[in-house]
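Running this now, will post back.
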Amino acid sequence: MPELAPLLVSALILGLLGGGHCLGMCGGLMGALTLAIPAEQRGRRLRLLLAYNLGRVLSYTAAGVLVGLAGWALASSPAAMALRVIAALLLIAMGLYLAGWWSGLTRIEAVGRGLWRHLQPLARRLLPVSSVPRALLLGALWGWLPCGLVYSTLLWAASQGSALDSGALMLAFGLGTWPVLLATGLAAERLKRVLQRRGVRVAGGLLIMVFGLWTLPGPHQHWLMGH
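Update: finished.
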């Protein structure tokens, strides 16, 4: 567990810094959940937002366990090194995307569009969200929305070669996205202005690129760990 702790912190920060991307993917739905409930019913509004985000994070965790099993199966094969390199390159690409320097990563979101075509009609049937169970289920379905940030993090988690570790990393990543999406539902415009600032995007992108370099196999990892 001590060896996993720095990775969990990294996953948490990755989710937090990737919040600007989450605004584009889920921010509209969060706003709809908020506006559908009268302002005087703030307690109910918060319960629905929490349930939605819990369902979304549980889907991330389940996906992490699944890819972790695949990573574990490949751990003793030459493919494990290739998986780690691909994960690192995707993280670097995500950093470039968040910084606004390159948007090619969004093309990999096409990978999950086939699955989402089957899930989207189910998600629509849950709208408008009128209860906590419906919000929980909607979040669980929305967790499978094609997203380059999630895919990059999944491959990074899979490269750990353990289902439990991968699930834990995706759980930490999902929790990292909570502040942004909860605030999106409760104070969308103010937070959006902050996250869209050039300096914030560049700083977040650079830090995620550092995560990518850290993931690349090589002697540089000892230098990064020492600093």
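The chain has a mean pLDDT of 81. More later if anyone needs it.
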